[in-house]
Amino acid sequence: MIKEVFLLYIDRWQFFLKLTMEHLKISGISILIASIIGLILGIFISEYKKTSPFILGITNFVYTIPSISLLGFLIPFSGIGNTTAVITLTIYALLPMVRNTYTGIENIDPSIIESAKGMGSTPFEILCKVKLPLATTVILSGLRNMVVMTIALGGIASFIGAGGLGVAIYRGITTNNKTMTIAGSLLIALLALIFDFIIGSIDKIIKRKWRLL
User: Fold this and answer.
1) Residue 7: in which H helix or E strand, if any?
2) SS3 at position 146
3) Which of the chain's termini has less CB crowding within 10 Å, N or C?
4) Residue 8 and residue 19 in contact, taking contact as beta carbons nearer than 8 Å
């Protein structure tokens, strides 16, 4: 089976390269949007703690909705194709970013914040120069989980007419072609592992620098 998959990659390399680029595009847009919104929401609920149960509750609730159901729910509003896929992936990617940003900031030693206030730092300076730098590793952990999950979840996007490596999986299933299904699945797994390794390496570098300070 591995030999058949390898031969399929060689024979259809342009097809798989195109799908891989589409997959990275859909996942990348979703990750970028979710990172920005998730970071903002995480900071917001850490500054206004009374809002945290409500916002975290909503993100947790949405996370429990099956991805196929959410895709189907959005089709009447955004149609079939990449737009619906990006919206769905973005929604699912929010929870890790919101939760880890909030947790990272909340776990900072209060005495450090008080020291910064005592030195005359403004709330904005404390946020940018103290809270976010100290919470970076926790935020990166959430980003790492979110990236892997988004790339993996992107495989279902083909079921609503979007592109990406899910197309290979879908074709394999509908034509009873196990080799095609495995080929698409392996590439998704490989992409997830590569980006997990990259973000993990960045996290280790940051932690090493913190230990040297």
Assistant:
1) helix 2-11
2) helix
3) C
4) no
Query: What percent of the residues of the chain are helix, what percent strand, and what percent coil, each to the nearest 5?
Result: 90, 0, 10
Copy the structure tokens of residue 33. 């949007």
d(CA 117, CA 76): 50
Higher pLDDT among residues 138 and 210, named by residue? 138
CA distances from 139 to 42, 58, 194, 205 (A): 10, 20, 19, 14
> What Cα–Cα distance (Å) separates residue 14 from each residue in 158, 176, 185, 196?
18, 22, 17, 25
Average pLDDT over residues 61-84: 81
Please state, in angstroms and rounded to a whole number, the distance separating the CA atoms of residues 5 and 144.
Answer: 28
Contacts of 31 (CB under 8 A, 6+ apart): 89, 93, 146, 147, 150
The domains found in the chain, sorted by start residue, are: 2-212 (1.10.3720.10)
The full length of the chain comes to 213
Tell me the two tokens of residue 196. 């997990």
8 Å CB contact between 146 and 96: yes
**Contact residues for 161 (Cβ-Cβ < 8 A; gap 6+):** 80, 81
Angle subtended at Cα 198 by Cα 184 and Cα 46, rounded to the nearest 5 degrees: 110
Pair of tokens at residue 159: 């079921």
